[in-house]
Amino acid sequence: MPDVQSTVVEFVNKLRKRKIEGSQATAKCTVELLRSVISHQRVPHANQAAALIDAVKAVGEQLVAANPVELAVGNVVRRVLHIIREEDLSLTTAAMGGLDLLDASDDDDVDNCKGIGYPAMSAAVVAAAARSTLRPPSLQTLLEGTPESATVPYTSSSGADSESKSKSADKSSLTRKLKHDVIEGVNQLIHEIAGCHEQIAEQAIEHIHQNEVILTLGSSRTVLEFMCAAKEKKRSFRVFVAEGAPRYQGHLLAKELVARGLQTTVITDSAVFAMISRVNMVIIGAHAVMANGGVIGPVGVNMAALAAQKHAVPFVVLAGSHKLCPLYPHNPEVLLNELRSPSELLDFGEFSDCLDFGAGSGSIQVVNPTFDYVPPNLVSLFITDTGGHNPSYMYRLIADYYSADDLVM
Amino acid sequence: MHPAVYKVGLQYLSGDISGGNARCIAMLQAFQEVVKDYSTPPEKTLNRNMAAKISSYVSFLRDCRPLSVSMENAIRFVKNRIAKLPITLSESEAKAALKSDIARFINEKIIGADTVIVKHAVTKIRDGDVLLTYGSPTAVEMVLLHAHELGKKFRVLVVDSRPKLQGQLLLRRLIKRGINCAYTHINAISYIMHQVTKVFLGASSVFSNGTVYSRVGTACVAMVATAFRVPVLVCCEAYKFHERVLLDYSICSSNELGDPNAISKVHGREDINYFDGLTNNANLKFLNLMYDATPSDYISMIITDYGMVPPTSVPVIVRECQKEHNCFESPKIVI
């Protein structure tokens, strides 16, 4: 336990100092950390899932607080919580399936009140589980009222322990099985995060056609892999890269594209509107995708999206599923943005005479945001590792990946 | 080659003189020197010979740097005046008339126009305004300074872009005069636009379909301002208007291209050197556009010396200007 705690503290420090770059790397490290937290967590016999959930939530809150702007951290924590709840539910239904059979064989034991109580319990349990996994509630679950969480089966199963030795054997194997299943699910999640680029790049050939001109901003590895996949399939096309001052990430992307043999032209950010009429498609990589289909991207994408809308150019956003955030953006420019150092814009040495707030001299303020928000009506298509989607569909994917109980952490 | 013209050409080449008005005034003052030192060779008429000389100087200036629309209009005016000189005038009288015409053009069409524009535009600035401007337009700078002298309380947001970073010059001048400013780069305009109450832009030229031709990036600023419902006001002297029309916003047929190395190298940031050794790669190109065209639906109003007009009234003003040129008589010299 203590060394897990120290790794958590170390990771929190890395996040706070922004030492980890990129959502994919951050997500992967976060999941691996949570995996070690789960495997080291001692779970009691009863309320296993609750114990795991509490442990993961405690660590998750620290991580999110360290870097609130890196939404991938919160996304991945919620994914892990969802995995725990889902595995718990599937084990419960399997256990109930097993216990129902035993019930059928013990038909003679009418005095067993637990046996009588079971059918009602199972319905309540199903209702609870259904609510927690955001499935649409059926009439039965609505009429049952609000039962306790999915920990109910364990109290009943612990009560039934006295009944037969076989049941207790099932229960202890259940203990180990939950953790095992959760770790397996988490491993799958890691695999998914690591492989998102390939999944997205596979769809490149459907969207990039021969002799097309593509505009891109920022430096996203997803976009790079996407374009290289199209090039592998012998599509020849040209790429305009906006340089992305003041971080100049466009320079980085252009260098990579040229190294892979793509025809690249570097333009200044101010020329985006001028060039958009000559472009067939705009492709960008998102930093995060919000629940309403809005996109948080590198600064300058809103300008490109507006220009693309004016000229009816498709605006395509590439995002791995770990970037899908179940939160709605309220005032995203302020709350989900980070301001960087003014020295990237103004050289302090050159402007030292203006920075002296003497009499008669005006004050100077420098604004240097990192991210930009694009509303969903400007996005034509999202390409994720599960395929292509409309912005209006993104909220539905949240139901697949996240549980309603975990949205507020 | 007249030394004054040569000097102006070199100043254009090095970028010492930039901005439509400055370039035009410098060129016209050089032409005044040319007229002063001119003497008609024997067997030649003054009209044709001087026009030919002016044309040769113009092609030299064009080699140094492509002409702006304001310069083209001024050249057309000068040639027009040369052609209209009455034959009866002696050489000294003709030279004096020409010099005074050029001086009148500068004073009325450029300097005088700027005064009128400033007078109109300050009425649009109110206390508590947050004004956004892009680059370093001379007309807008005069408006802001005058409004500050009148005691209006406002803030200015200067938006800048690579590679010229002209906004820094404007920023410095405004700060020195005591105006509170904020500074940002063009990518961040979506972030700050919700604070802005008005956008003031300059123009190199305005075409007859209302399209504004100006520094690259102006179209982006106007577009984002329109998306956030912020009024966009363009300050432009009437002599810069042109009867051409323009649909293509990248103006690929005649856009001026700047130095590609200005993009690959970032001045002052030696750590940004990703392109070292790659400049000869056939796959890599740099495109450094100087100008772009802003569609007229992004412009709320154009402030000129003829008044404050919507972009749809530009062809009307062009016609008025042309009529004025046709009856722009030189003053009668009474002997």
Automatic annotation (TrEMBL), chain B:
Pfam families: IF-2B. The keyword Heme does not apply. Coiled coil: none annotated. One of its GO terms (molecular function) is translation initiation factor activity. The keyword Protein biosynthesis applies. Its main location: cytoplasm. One of its GO terms (cellular component) is cytosol. Keywords: Cytoplasm, Initiation factor, Protein biosynthesis. It is found in: Cytoplasm, Cytosol. PANTHER family: TRANSLATION INITIATION FACTOR EIF-2B, TRANSLATION INITIATION FACTOR EIF-2B SUBUNIT DELTA. Belongs to the eIF-2B alpha/beta/delta subunits family. Component of the translation initiation factor 2B (eIF2B) complex which is a heterodecamer of two sets of five different subunits: alpha, beta, gamma, delta and epsilon. Subunits alpha, beta and delta comprise a regulatory subcomplex and subunits epsilon and gamma comprise a catalytic subcomplex. Within the complex, the hexameric regulatory complex resides at the center, with the two heterodimeric catalytic subcomplexes bound on opposite sides. This is Translation initiation factor eIF2B subunit delta. It comes from Arabidopsis lyrata subsp. lyrata (Lyre-leaved rock-cress).
